[in-house]
Backbone:
């Protein structure tokens, strides 16, 4: 229980300082610092692969448009 309260207090402090400094200081290194302060591993959101529907019968069904991670 104490750990959860401590994490919430750290999150509150970091949000208040972020609010005071503004969006200009918010960059990826700030996000890494927040994750390190909270002892959380930062995992980026994975992108979904895009696909296109076939409009005509001679096209291959559901060709992948491109790879999202490129």
Residues:
């Amino acid at each position: 229980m104490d750990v959860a309260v401590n994490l919430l207090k750290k999150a509150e402090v970091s949000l208040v300082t972020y609010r005071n400094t503004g969006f200009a200081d918010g960059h990826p290194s700030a996000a890494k610092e927040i994750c390190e302060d909270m002892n959380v591993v930062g995992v980026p959101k994975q992108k979904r692969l895009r696909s296109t529907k076939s409009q005509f019968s001679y096209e291959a069904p559901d060709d992948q448009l491109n790879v999202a991670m490129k």
Observations:
- The helical segments are 2-21, 28-37.
